[in-house]
Amino acid sequence: MHDFDRIIDRRNTNSIKYDFAAKRGIPESAMPMWVADMDFRSPKEVIDALAKVVEHGIFGYSEPGDDYYIAVCDWFREGFAFDVKPDWTVAAPGVVFALNMAIQAFTEHGDSVIIQSPVYYPFGHSVRDNGRRLIESSLALKEGKYEMDFDDFEEKVKKSGAKLFILCSPHNPVGRVWTEKELACVGDICMNYDVIVVSDEIHCDFAHPGHKHQIFGSIKDEFLARSITCTAPSKTFNLPGLHNANVFIADKNLRRKYENTIRATGLSQPNALGFVAGMAAYRHGRPWLYELKAYIQENLSFARDFIAKRIPSVKLIEPEGTYLIWLDFRELAKTDEEVENIVLRKAGLWLDLGGIFGKEGHGFARMNIACPKEIVRQALVKLEAAVSML
């Protein structure tokens, strides 16, 4: 059994979550529950595999062998019935990097790229930073649940001539695990207008009980042929600092174009420790993951009950996946500045303010609950005290 209750001091480890508050304009005393990494040690098998490489002491140019790609494919075949092939897999240092490469590979300067907001903020940054036109189709919040607005999505694809759609599945920050029917509907629209789908599925291993993650490319053959699927062990096993991601591209022409785009950046071999950790995680980490997911469910249950009973003016948007919760402060605050006054100035919590995810996020904040229960409890007590002073 893994001790997820153990509070590990991460300060002075070059952690962006704990050591760089002042550089980001945040009081150093603020409790950090913003960025999506976990406060848990990775599986022992991963740590042991890394220790073996470190003990060897030579860190020359390296690249993953067939055993790595087989481990990746086995994980997705066993966990998602997705029959991915080793030769579909392109290594990348991260999913955000992979998204940027897709934008460069499959669109031209000035082309339109569509996203569904509020959504993970690097989506919009990546589109704009690459000189593309950002098109946003807002998700609809109905009775506490977000839904895709298919009519709006199709109208904006048609009007803008969008070449690329960046899908977030499961969705960060609103926590939706899209159903096969929803994905098929948005996928059909993209196929009808010849839009390539880039599916960010980095949170795929965190579908909550009663919900099933569906790999977009596994729904229809035509989806597989016109999409790229971005995955990584980083969220699942807490390995983001090792910079290792896996991009699945079944179509050889799309894959060749994508690989050429990566090659033009000068990136060659991946992080030698990243794929070692990834292979160990995919080979041996499933029991650890089962324990982790059960623990996160306990944290979610605690947060749900606490907020409903003791901070009823703050609404939890019930998540179906991820280890992030999306909090609705609109009964108390309408702008990011007003939300920040509550969560940071009064409660001393460092959360991601909703406006960075798109204009639809104003009045919301994202909170990471992948940490020991005591940390979640302390954070919510702080929030309760702050709200009581309003």
Overall shape: it is globular
Average pLDDT: 97
Put simply, the count of helices is 13
How are the strands of the largest sheet arranged? 2-10-9-8-7-3-4
Kindly report the name of the CATH homologous superfamily of the largest domain.
Type I PLP-dependent aspartate aminotransferase-like (Major domain)
CATH uppermost class of the largest domain:
Alpha Beta
Low-confidence segments, ≥5 residues, pLDDT <50? none
End-to-end C-alpha gap? 43 Å
Proportion of strand residues: 15-25%
How would you sum up the major sheet? 7 strands, mixed
For this structure, the quaternary state is single chain
If classified by CATH, what would the architecture of the largest domain be? 3-Layer(aba) Sandwich
Question: Describe it for me?
Answer:
It is a single chain. The chain is of the alpha/beta class and 390 residues long. It folds into 2 domains: 22-43 and 287-388, Alpha-Beta Complex (Aspartate Aminotransferase, domain 1), CATH 3.90.1150; 59-284, Type I PLP-dependent aspartate aminotransferase-like (Major domain) (Aspartate Aminotransferase, domain 2). Helices cover 41% and strands 15% of the residues. It is built from 13 helices and 15 strands. It has helices at 44-56, 66-80, 95-106, 122-129, 150-160, 180-192, 221-225, 234-237, 252-264, 272-284, 286-310, 336-346, 373-388; strands at 31-32, 89-92, 112-117, 133-138, 140-142, 145-147, 164-168, 196-200, 227-231, 245-248, 315-317, 324-328, 349-350, 352-353, 364-368. The strands form 4 sheets. It has a 7-stranded mixed beta sheet, sandwiched between helices. A 4-stranded antiparallel beta sheet has the order 11-12-15-14. It has a two-stranded parallel ribbon with strand order 1-13. β3, α4 (122-129) and β4 form a beta-alpha-beta unit. It is globular.
